[in-house]
Amino acid sequence: MDASELRALQAPLKQQYREDPARARTPLRATAELDAPEITATVGGWAGPVVAGLHPATGGDGSAACSGDMLLEAVLACAGVTMRSVATMLGLDVRHARLTATATFDARGTLGVSREAPVGIQDLLVTAQVETDTDDALLARLGELTERYCVVGQSLAVPPRIVVTRPGDDRLPGQSP
């Protein structure tokens, strides 16, 4: 796909969202089941169910997926698609790119060993090695725009709310019965 094809594909959507901003609010949904006696969650994924469990640093044996790794995979998926879209719109010829995400987490935080230790990943870095003939300034612009428009990456700035209810109770906290 080239820039003109991408513009043609997205033009009616952009116009629709300019005219009716509420239509741009796009719902997303994922589900997980806690139905095994192990400390796992089975997450429904596009390629089939994924069993997530404890990281070895928190007591897991490494046989289940680590949710932190899954988060990095989601960031890479979004950054990759975003980068390809931005490169297309900028007219950059990206022959190949390899994206890598790295981060750390302090197991003391999630295990409750230290209240001073953060809970969550830190120092998330996405690096992209891009095979292209473009100049360094345009390559830097590709990185800036990819970071700006990466939905998953930008979402990490605000932690999720977690609400616990009983089956059939779809009320949000603070709502009357």
Shape type: globular
Rg on CA atoms, Å: 20 Å
Order of SSEs, N→C? HEEEEHEHEHH
The largest pleated sheet is described as: 4 strands, mixed
Strand arrangement across the biggest beta sheet:
1-2-3-4
Residue-averaged pLDDT: 93
Strand content: 15-25%
Derived structural class:
alpha+beta
Instruction: Give me the count of strands.
Output: 6
Annotation field: number of helices:
5
Specify the helix fraction band.
Answer: 25-40%
N- and C-termini, Cα separation: 51 Å
- Low-pLDDT parts are none
Report on this model:
The protein is α+β, with helices and mostly antiparallel strands. It has five helices and six strands; from the N terminus they run αββββαβαβαα. The strands form two sheets. Strands 1-2-3-4 form a four-stranded mixed β-sheet. A two-stranded antiparallel ribbon has the order 5-6.
Key terms:
single chain, 177 residues, alpha+beta, 4-stranded mixed beta sheet, two-stranded antiparallel sheet, 5 helices, 19% strand
Topology (elements, then pairings):
Layout: H1 3-19, E1 32-33, E2 40-43, E3 50-53, E4 65-66, H2 67-90, E5 96-105, H3 107-110, E6 121-131, H4 136-149, H5 151-155
Parallel strand pairs: 3-4
Antiparallel strand pairs: 1-2, 2-3, 5-6
